[in-house]
Each structure stands twice: as C-alpha cells, then as structure tokens.
C-alpha cells in the first residue's frame, strides 16, 4: 500500500493505535489532536486522505470537512463516529465526506474503507488528467476529422464556446454546420439549457416571425391561444438559425432588433419580452454578395458575423473521407443483420475520387446504402450508387452530350426536381439549394408539375 493519511482525533490513545495500524500497512501517517492543527498541517504538506473524528474539542470534524471542501484541496475525507452520532456522520457524507467508520473501529473495516477511499481518489485524479489532456487537443467528440482545416475549426470552437458572442458558420449544404453549432453549445456554459435548430429556408415567410417570437391569441387567423416562440423557450440556451440568408428583409429588421435590444415582441403583442439566448447562424451563400445585391442588411451581417467559422467541403478534406466512411460503416453495422468488415479497396477508391456535391450528408447516405446492399464482408463497387461508379464525367457530374434528336426539357427538369426532393427528404429549401435555385422558384415549379399536392402520384 502507499499514500499519505492525516489522522485527526483528540484522544491520544486512539491516534497512537491508528498510527500503528496504518504505518504497518504501508501508509505514510501524520496524527494531530484537533481540527485547527489539521488545517495547519494541510498548509505545510499534502495528504491523500483525512481520517477524522466527528466529535472533538474545539473545531469539530464537520467544521474541518467544510473547511477542506471550501479550500478545494481535493483530499478525501473519512469520518469516525461513535454509535450515537451516526446521523451526523450521514449528514457529513451529504456534505462531501467519502464514508464513515463507527467506533470502536475494526481493523479490517478500517483498511477496506481506506483502500476504497484511495481507489476513489485515484479515479478522480485520472479523470482530471484525462479532461486536461482533452482540453489540450483540438478534437470535438461529435465531429469526425483530422484535416488541418478541421483542426482549426475545432480550435475555434473550443476558444469561443465559453463566450456569448454570435457566430456565423459558412459551408456548403451537408458539411455539418449544425454539428458545429451544437458543439459550440455543448462546450459552453449554456450546455444544460435548450438548443433549438431552425432551418429558415424551410419555414414560410408568413410563419417565421411567429415561430421565432411567438404570438398572442387572436393575432391572426388560427391563433386560438398565446404561443411562446423559440427565442423565449430557449431562455439561457442557444438558437441556431440555419440558412439565415433566406429570411426576408422585413424579418431581418426584427431579428436585428432582437439581437441589439435582447428583447422581442410577440406577433400581435404590445409588450416587449426580454430574452437571453446565444444566436448562431449559418449559410451556404456569400452574404457579402447578397448585401451588394440588396438582399441582406449590412448591419445585421455585422451583428451575426462577430465570429466566423468556415467549413471546408468534403472533397477538400483528403483522408477525412476514408475516416468518415469507416465511421458510418460502424454506425450502420449496429443495425445490420450481418455486420460488415469494411469497404473494399476498389469501392474505397471510387469514394475517394468522387467530388461529393452533397458533402458529409451524401457520404452517410451512400455508406448506409452500401451496408444494406453488400452481399460479402465488404462494400464492393457494385454496392455503390451509379453516379459514383460512373465518376465525375458521367451523369453523376451532370455533364452529358445533347443527343441529335434533342430532349424533352420539361421531363428532364421534372426528373431533376424529383431527385432533389427525394435527396432532401421533402424539404423544399434544401432541395432548392441542391438545384441552385431560390425557395420561391422551386415552389413555383413544384406547383407547375403538380408535385406538391397531397395524394397525387409523383411520376419519377
């Protein structure tokens, strides 16, 4: 055995017996007659465990415990108590003592309790060392990647998380902007509070103000009761506004006021409501260009862009593609009837050479399909979608010759829209991004082709 123990007891005979037993078991021991002497000993030396009597002349064991906890010196405290003071010993454990021993002490019980106290202390120290090591690295557990650009993203996340400043995340669709926003929230002092993610492109313009700020009863048709908006519901937490470039100029004014004044007004309301939220936004547009076009307010941009994080597209992340692919294989293996061993080299080569226009989200979908389709221990090329097997020059890259007889353009347009809606899981805003058009333009085309009417068969 090893370690140091400070014995605190006002009975000289008890101190001598305990010292003999513990020294004989290999512990380093110092014994003092009271709480004040114990505090003086703690100033001059470090001890692993404090073994103290509860009832003593002068400073009691409970008062010593409180002083040790307040000093945050990380000693483990074990109480010794007479039969009539068990309740007080239990109260001491509630305040932070590790355990208690009832007098008269049994040698075996004493040594077992102290061994458990040392094991507990070792575990605490190992956890503290691990946390320090993690703090020194740039890794974020929820985000996979070791490319230098991603390590810089991890560094920024750790640096800014404790603050309350707004952050603006740039990146193509599917690069993981929401994961970054969640990582900022999870590493902040707000992590115990709520995190709300809102896709601004997926909410109609007429509803987004009510969604964010709430509304009063009777403020519009269908408003049968007061509803609290996300900014109020997320009090103390974080609100993530994805595709911030899609909100209207009128809504931009109201959002700017909410950020500046830290208060909102519900739709139809007459009273300003204070809010306490951290706002993180994201976009796949160049907002500076949108400002020049008159589509985005410059003052709002500077309010949102206090901290800027740029996520690289997957095609620029080198070996991260392989790391992510292996991660997704393991993820979907958990639900597979027969788990796979991995991805065959020919299939991995296709994955590495593909440009990944849909980024990490597309890679996840492709690997999920591969795990489901695989008929051997490894994902083979034939288990991958056609666009990966054809390469960038095939239909997957949308580069093809116009046939001599021409094409039916509307049929081609309809097919592309159908594929984009399928890949976007029916979210119009996301499908519009994949097609490079605005939300309103895609909505018009969906209505034109009758593709957004409930119950109507979509002929893909």
Outline the structure in words:
The strands form 5 sheets. A 5-stranded parallel β-sheet has the order 2-1-3-4-5, with helices on both faces. The chain has a 5-stranded parallel β-sheet with strand order 7-10-13-6-14, covered by helices on one side. It has a two-stranded antiparallel ribbon with strand order 8-9. Helix content is 46%, strand content 14%. By secondary structure, it is an alpha/beta fold. The longest helix has 30 residues. It contains 19 helices and 16 strands. The chain has 4 domains: 130 residues, Rossmann fold (3-Layer(aba) Sandwich), CATH 3.40.50; 163 residues, P-loop containing nucleotide triphosphate hydrolases (Rossmann fold, 3-Layer(aba) Sandwich); 82 residues, Helicase, Ruva Protein, domain 3, CATH 1.10.8; 60 residues, Arc Repressor Mutant, subunit A (Orthogonal Bundle), CATH 1.10.10.60. α2 packs parallel to α3, α13 crosses α15 and α18 packs across α19.
So, the CATH homologous superfamily of the largest domain? P-loop containing nucleotide triphosphate hydrolases
Sheet bearing the most strands, described? 5 strands, parallel
Radius of gyration: 32 Å
Shape: elongated
- CATH topology of the largest domain, by name, is Rossmann fold
pLDDT below 50 for ≥5 consecutive residues: which ranges? 134-138, 393-399, 453-460
Mean pLDDT: 86
Distance, first to last CA: 74 Å
Strand order of the largest sheet: 2-1-3-4-5
Give the percentage of residues in beta strands. Answer: 5-15%
Structural class: alpha/beta
CATH class of the largest domain: Alpha Beta
Number of separate domains: 4
Number of strands: 16
Discrete helix count: 19
User: Which second-level CATH architecture of the largest domain applies?
Assistant: 3-Layer(aba) Sandwich
Oligomeric status of the shown chains? Answer: single chain
Helix content: 40-55%
């Amino acid at each position: 055995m090893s370690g140091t123990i400070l014995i605190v007891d006002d009975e000289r005979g008890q101190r001598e017996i305990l010292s003999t037993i513990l020294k004989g078991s290999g512990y380093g021991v110092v014994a003092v007659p009271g709480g004040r002497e114990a505090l003086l000993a703690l100033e001059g030396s470090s001890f692993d465990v404090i073994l103290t009597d509860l009832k003593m002349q002068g400073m009691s064991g409970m008062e010593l415990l409180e002083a040790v906890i307040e000093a945050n010196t990380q000693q483990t405290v074990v109480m010794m108590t007479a039969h009539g003071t068990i309740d007080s010993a239990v109260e001491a454990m509630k305040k932070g003592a590790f355990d208690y021993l009832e007098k008269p002490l049994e040698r075996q019980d004493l040594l077992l309790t102290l061994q458990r106290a040392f094991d507990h202390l070792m575990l605490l120290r190992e956890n503290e060392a691990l946390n320090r090591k993690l703090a020194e690295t740039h890794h974020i557990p929820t985000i996979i990647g070791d490319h230098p650009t991603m390590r810089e993203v991890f560094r920024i996340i750790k640096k800014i998380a404790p603050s309350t400043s707004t952050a603006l995340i740039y990146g193509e669709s599917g690069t993981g902007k929401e994961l970054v926003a969640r990582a900022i929230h999870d590493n902040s002092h707000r992590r115990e509070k709520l995190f709300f993610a809102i896709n601004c492109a997926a909410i109609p313009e007429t509803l987004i103000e009510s969604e964010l700020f709430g509304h009063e009863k009777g403020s519009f048709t269908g408003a049968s009761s007061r509803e609290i908006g996300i900014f109020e519901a997320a009090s103390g937490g974080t609100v993530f506004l994805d595709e911030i470039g899609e909100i209207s100029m009128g809504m931009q004014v109201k959002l700017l006021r909410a950020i500046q004044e830290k208060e909102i007004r519900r739709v139809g309301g007459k009273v300003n409501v204070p809010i306490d939220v951290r706002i993180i936004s994201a976009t796949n547009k160049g907002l500076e260009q949108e400002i020049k076009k008159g589509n985005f307010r410059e003052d709002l941009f500077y309010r949102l862009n206090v901290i800027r994080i740029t996520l690289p597209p997957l095609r620029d992340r080198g070996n991260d593609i392989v790391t992510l692919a292996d991660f997704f294989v393991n993820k979907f293996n958990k639900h597979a009837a027969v788990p796979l061993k991995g991805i065959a080299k020919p299939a991995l080569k296709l994955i590495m050479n593909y440009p990944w226009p849909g980024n990490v989200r597309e890679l996840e979908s492709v690997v999920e399909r591969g795990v489901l389709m695989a008929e051997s221990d490894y994902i083979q090329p034939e288990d991958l979608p056609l666009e990966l097997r054809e390469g960038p020059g095939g239909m997957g890259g949308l580069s093809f010759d116009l046939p001599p007889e021409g094409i039916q353009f509307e049929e081609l347009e309809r097919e592309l829209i159908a594929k984009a809606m399928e890949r976007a899981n029916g979210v119009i805003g996301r499908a519009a991004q994949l097609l490079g058009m605005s939300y309103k333009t895609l909505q018009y085309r969906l209505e034109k082709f009758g593709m957004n009417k409930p119950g109507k068969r979509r002929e893909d």
